[in-house]
Amino acid sequence: MSTNTPKNTQIWLPFTQMSEITKNPPIEIKKAKGAWLYDNNNNKYLDAVASWWVSALGHNNPKIAKAIGEQAKKLDQVIFANCTHTGAQEVAKKVLNLLPNKLQKVFFSDNGSTAVEVSLKLALQYHHQTGNPQKTKIMSLNDAYHGDTIGAMSVSGTEHFFAPYKPMLFKSPKIKNWNKLEQTIIKHAHKTAAIIVEPLIQAAGGMKIYHIKHLQQLAKLCKKHNVLVIYDEIATGFGRTGTMFAMDQIGTSNLYAPDMVCLSKGLTGGTVAMSITACSNKIYKAFLGPYSANKTFFHGHSYTANPIACAASIATLDIFANQNIIKNMQKNMQYFNDCAQKFAKNLPLKNFRALGWVAAWDIDDVRKSQKQRLSPIITKTALKYGLLIRPLGNVLYFWPPITLTKTEIDFMFNTTKKVLNEIMI
Amino acid sequence: MSTNTPKNTQIWLPFTQMSEITKNPPIEIKKAKGAWLYDNNNNKYLDAVASWWVSALGHNNPKIAKAIGEQAKKLDQVIFANCTHTGAQEVAKKVLNLLPNKLQKVFFSDNGSTAVEVSLKLALQYHHQTGNPQKTKIMSLNDAYHGDTIGAMSVSGTEHFFAPYKPMLFKSPKIKNWNKLEQTIIKHAHKTAAIIVEPLIQAAGGMKIYHIKHLQQLAKLCKKHNVLVIYDEIATGFGRTGTMFAMDQIGTSNLYAPDMVCLSKGLTGGTVAMSITACSNKIYKAFLGPYSANKTFFHGHSYTANPIACAASIATLDIFANQNIIKNMQKNMQYFNDCAQKFAKNLPLKNFRALGWVAAWDIDDVRKSQKQRLSPIITKTALKYGLLIRPLGNVLYFWPPITLTKTEIDFMFNTTKKVLNEIMI
């Protein structure tokens, strides 16, 4: 299959060294269906990264598309202060029904980064208004990734991207070693408002999977030391880890449930941008009072709880419920896992790890001495064979729609094998 | 008309003291058309704030709704790295055609705050990569408002909202007095990467209108001192100030054009969230190089250049062009201005200012001694009479769709007069 060059160069692509786009031109995608993207020449590509991890149910689900089209005709947008709409109420209700009972309120925003920013601001203001204004730090994991706005970057750990922005970032004490979790928390707790983590798997941080027990310990320690726990389930939510949310595996009782959770990506079935920060009543109540007490949460975006995005979200959550997606995906997910278990054989891959619909390996880079980055070569070669994969640096991973069929799973693994064999000689 | 209480209280509304929602329950909006919002009982409300300044062309324009519905069926979303799509290319082309020639590249993101964050990060990284790593400050105007994420808040000036977040914000030197602009810039220039301003009117900062000449002087001084100029046209863009963009009134030659401009709100005709940070080739080129030089702009959001939002934007820009909106709105805009000029007579309003489709007054608060906030009382009373207005603290303003008819203009002014007379006695 041939790639086709975009018609103009007026666009600056995200996370892309633009000097390389002549060598690695982006594919112009015209339409999509399920797990497949189609270019102008009707070549098709299996979207094995679910388009940056958003298309949980695959592309262009007709039910979601219909909901979007109908909502656009009825109520496109309304200011979400002094006004509300049933769509937002439906989303709030459906999402809270899926979350631990501890989470009782929903604050809408537009993307993962803003959902994280909301959680960080809520954390500081919560302590400010409950007698602990000295609690102004947010702790985070080593190698964390929570987004690209200044607040979200400040609690991320991929520092090598960040050198120019350092003067704009605030400092976040890091949890570097789970075995020293208690000491680390005790050391910083007196000044710490919250800890933010991606539960069970650090995705952009390198597909690093870690044990449930650490999060259970984290929950207990944070409760003891009056530190809020924020779960960033932007990547992990909506079936990715094998359950609806990663937190379902950790325990949803009040003992283990987080104080806040950030959701986005799959929230609209991968169709339009929207996000949610859900929080406990304890947090919500700390913001109530007469206006003059200055406890209001002064945060909002123009398109907060956009009715079209809410319609997409309702349709998505209905599909999850009515089609029993989580239960029905288990068989193919197991097949995906079986294939992944066997995949590295005779390939230059090591450190296999897998969770739900994620599988990852470190590439044992035999070309290291040639100083060639393998990631773009792998992507380019895979596109030639009709597969979209994008290694994270040296980490090869699969993160397909959770509705993938066995035939598509076979295609994904077989094609990747062909690619690796072709370029790793 | 009666208001109707929302069915659940699972939602935390933005910029709202939630203890007051029983007293001031949000209206549940069911549908919209043009300048009008309709509740469940078919009561209608003129949206005189264009739903947080986004619905430039009014609500539910059939052309935009159709474009959204069709795109949702064809290509909902695709990762915007390694892939692209014609929608994004069309938007980039159409937007750049409307902007000064100096602006040559488009970086997409999801909302106003992220568009600003992108501009701030580009500014620091630009200087970092062109031999001036000491240029790490962003200057901004007193009382500026550029959004609610940590970076955007850091360059904003409404500090009274910000006390709990102060430990997370970076410092931004302020331009407090236009008459001392040169001294202020000279004082900070050696360490300053960029200055960010809302051109001609500080909107959320209190509808403060200022003269073109200050921005012309700013452009010249910044050029001289190697400081980038960022125009935040998120609120001012798409016809609001009487021209397509506020910058059109300042001068679009290379002498006066900004180095970057942030767009959102009206970009999709007020239908779904999307934003753009446009920049000059000078900036773009400073990010080119071999990957190993680490000059890549590592920023992106999952839904960057979302195809559905791009379809909405193309339809919006086509309407502006084909219906010659800017030219054809001038007559009604003049009528709006005439009405506004005369409006304060016999009303407790002072400090009238107006620009394009914006008119504002400070409320001469006769109730001050009673310590009642007038803003929510005005909003509540206006809703009773079928009008949505939301004073910014003590600032009464109109910011309607730019397609408002004379009859609607009359209704807006007459109803507001009735409201003020009723509550200001």
Outline the structure in words.
- The structure is a homodimer of 425-residue chains.
- Chain A is of the alpha/beta class and 425 residues long.
- Chain A folds into two domains: 18-61 and 326-423, Aspartate Aminotransferase, domain 1; 64-324, Type I PLP-dependent aspartate aminotransferase-like (Major domain) (Aspartate Aminotransferase, domain 2).
- Helices cover 34% and strands 18% of the residues of chain A.
- The first copy, chain A, contains 14 helices and 17 strands.
- Chain A has a seven-stranded mixed beta sheet with strand order 5-13-12-11-8-6-7, with helices on both faces.
- In chain A, helix 8 links the parallel strand 11 and strand 12.
- In chain A, helix 2 runs antiparallel to helix 10 (307-322) and helix 13 packs across helix 14 (406-423).
- The longest helix of chain A is centred in the last third of the chain and has 18 residues, at 406-423.
- Chain A is globular.
- The two termini of chain A are 22 Å apart.
- The model of chain A is unreliable at 1-7 (pLDDT under 50).
- Chains A and B meet through strand 1, helix 1, helix 2, strand 4 and helix 3 of A and strand 1, helix 1, helix 2, strand 4 and helix 3 of B.
- Strand 1 (27-33) of chain A pairs parallel with strand 4 of chain B, so a sheet runs across the interface.
Write the layout of secondary structure elements.
Two copies of one chain form a homodimer.
Chain A (H helix, E strand, L loop, with lengths): L26 E7 L2 E4 L4 E4 L2 H4 L8 H13 L8 E2 L1 H13 L4 E7 L2 H17 L8 E5 L8 H5 L19 E2 L5 H8 L3 E6 L3 E2 L5 E2 L2 H13 L3 E5 L14 H4 L9 E4 L11 E6 H5 L21 H16 L2 H4 L1 H14 L5 E7 L2 E6 L10 H11 L2 E2 L6 E4 L7 H18 L2
Parallel strand pairs in A: 3-16, 6-7, 6-8, 8-11, 11-12
Antiparallel strand pairs in A: 1-2, 2-3, 5-13, 9-10, 12-13, 14-15, 15-17
